[in-house]
Task: structure prediction
Amino acid sequence: MSTNIAAGNGSNTPNTTPAPSQSPTSNVSRPASPATVPHVPIPRRGVGYRGKVVLAPMVRSGELPSRLLALYYKADLVWGPETVDRSMIGTIQRTNSRTGCIEWSRPQNKHANSLVTEDGEKENVIYRIDSKRESDRLVFQIGTNSPERAVAAADLVAPYCVAIDVNAGCPKSFSTDGGMGAALLTEQNGDLLARILTALVNEVGQKHEIGISVKIRLLSTPEETSALVHKLCKTGITGLTIHCRTRPMRPRERAIREQLRMIGEICHSHGVACLMNGDVASRDEAVRLAQEYGVDGGMIATAAEANSSVFLSESEGGKKHWREVVTQYLRFALEVENKFGNTKFLLSQLMPGKEAIYQRVSQCRSYTAILQALELNNDVTMSEMAKNVDSLLHLDEPKVSKSDVKKANKAANRAKHEANIARKKRAAEEFMQAQQHKRERRTSPLREQTEARGRSPERKAEIAADNAGFEGVGQGALQVAV
Ligand SMILES: Cc1cc2nc3c(=O)[nH]c(=O)nc-3n(C[C@H](O)[C@H](O)[C@H](O)COP(=O)(O)O)c2cc1C
Result:
């Protein structure tokens, strides 16, 4: 890491933490004397979180090319997106011979952009790791509510990362409804979460010699948070990240820091590293806040999603122009054959929405088209890669998109609607004509006369015709009748 954060080192050797500053919260349980507390030892293949500014776990926004981009701009560690234990268990692991990446996949379902493996099978990639470029700095985050499943899933990726992190902070219903994410903060007063962490420490951390950590949110009172943090720190974890928002707080609400110093102190009392998260805009700000609140480092999510070069300190040149970041992102996306939909999503985050080019890129249907829209097609290497990846992901084939289907359905409905209107119009005209005809017949003098006498002219004509020996009712018979 390029900047210094006061709270300690990330080495594997046990160490003593510096004396913490006074906690502003008086009625929470006090941490043990820090002078006598060693750091929890960092396992041989693990990495300490002390002094680090890291990329936050982000579903969709934390796929492999985003992590490579953050590392390129000097993030110290990168968290992968939360991956639910059940989705990993039962996957097939392969090394992609073209990219060198390790991929965990399932046979294809209806989703697009499936890769064709060398055996000609179509598969959906659930998780992808670039073992050469990220394994020494990758933290795999798991979504779970079961110690057994957590261990089974983590065991698959543990050889290719430096730590397993448990997501206990996601407040979204897709996570909490399944008893995962922020639901773990209160489930059995945090006991289930503690059991999950203990199982991971004993059965994955020790076996693979990597660290286990957890990411939590604030509970509503310092007392509750304090009790939970103490409980979690006793499980053998090496790090804890605190997202400085409570469970009901929305992302747009400013992060709150009141409990932060206390949490840092509790972590230190157990020898556990503490990262802070929430409204951290850059490396320099992470360093400043960590020093101010006595924690060990910072984690950045949305600011890095919008521009990953926030990991560069001002002294290293600071944030780069979006065009430079987007070009580098596309290089990584092509190198690792990233899913096209995910690449487009990330581009929508990295490009300023106000730029006209944003609209053009959002309409592109292939990597080649994106390079053209961004005027990067004169880069021969990138163009060649784009052609290959387009072919691999079938993006070069004419494709019926959802919006095409929508348009076609709309046109068919419109045609049906118009035909209906025309049919009704015709029926109405016919009806009107019939009415008119009836009216005309009703008002003819002959009808008036005969009807006045109680017989229709047709019946009279028939009688007359019979009398005259005619077969049918003709003009002549009518004349007779009249
Ligand atoms: C698109 C997106 C996806 C996220 N996915 C995860 C996730 O998978 N796991 C997790 O623990 N937090 C997730 N978060 C929360 C972030 O890691 C982070 O805690 C939160 O955004 C606050 O940090 P910030 O203020 O820097 O954005 C996600 C946030 C965003 C914006």
About this structure: The longest strand covers residues 122-129. Residues 298 and 437 are 88 Å apart (CA to CA). Residues 56-61, 81-82, 141, 167, 169-170, 215, 243, 251, 277-280, 300-303 surround flavin mononucleotide (CB under 6 Å).
